Amino acid sequence: NAGVTQTPKFQVLKTGQSMTLQCAQDMNHEYMSWYRQDPGMGLRLIHYSVGAGITDQGEVPNGYNVSRSTTEDFPLRLLSAAPSQTSVYFCATQRFSRANSPLHFGNGTRLTVT
Amino acid sequence: DAKTTQPTSMDCAEGRAANLPCNHSTISGNEYVYWYRQIHSQGPQYIIHGLKNNETNEMASLIITEDRKSSTLILPHATLRDTAVYYCIVRLYGQNFVFGPGTRLSVLP
After folding, report:
1. Fewest Cβ atoms closer than 10 Å to its Cβ: which of A88, B2, B17, B44?
2. Nearest C-alpha in A relative to B92
């Protein structure tokens, strides 16, 4: 039982490049989400999904796309990276059907855009 | 916006109890209080949550005041490994988790 797995752990991009951050979970959790964390700040919600085929925007969705074709995977796409997207990205999951269950986090992807 | 207020930082001596306060004066009757911590940019780790009764698990205790407007997370015997940022979150079932800046706890030898 690996929990929440994020890949890659580190990535450096040039401005304008695209990439996909991967998030996979093996807990059969309905809810998956992406947060970003900038230095010295709390986590901000980018996008989330309450089940396969359903996605919605969080607090800071601009510049990011998501899709949810399976329960297990929730990739985050940067179509044209900008230096402002330099951050640490965390994927989190939750057993949404169980009221008030906690979020479970991956260990993050550290992205630098130059 | 986060619905909670926490001190920016706290110190605690190793081996002592660490008491981390959280103010949530606008909490509604069905909102739960959750605590997470984040150790040095790792993924946040769930600690405990509760509605109105005090809760205890192997990591910590959560004390919620009778009027539910504030709570305290207690680490009974703090160790150096408990140095982290601690987040208090108030959330209604079905809502997203909103993280504030948290409290930076430093456990001192």
Report:
1. B17
2. A100
Tally of CB atoms within 10 A around A67:
15
Does residue A98 carry a pLDDT above 90?
Answer: no
Mean pLDDT of chain A: 94
What mean pLDDT is predicted for residues A7-29?
97
In chain B, the residue whose alpha carbon lies closest to the alpha carbon of A6 is B43
pLDDT tens for B15-56 read: 999 999 999 999 988 899 999 999 987 999 999 999 998 999
Best A36, A100, A107, A112 member to test B by mutation, with max B CBs in 10 Å, is A100
Give, in order, the Cα–Cα distances in Å from B85 to each of A20, A39, A79, B6, B22: 28, 13, 32, 11, 13
Do B33 and B49 form a contact (C-beta atoms < 8 A)? Answer: yes
In the three-class reduction of DSSP (H, G, I as helix; E, B as strand; rest coil), residue B22 is classed as strand
CA-based R_g, chain B, Å: 13
Give A42→chain B minimum CA distance, Å.
Answer: 5
**Which residues of B lie closer than 8 Å to A, measured between beta carbons?**
2, 32, 34, 36, 41-46, 49, 51, 87, 91, 93, 96-102
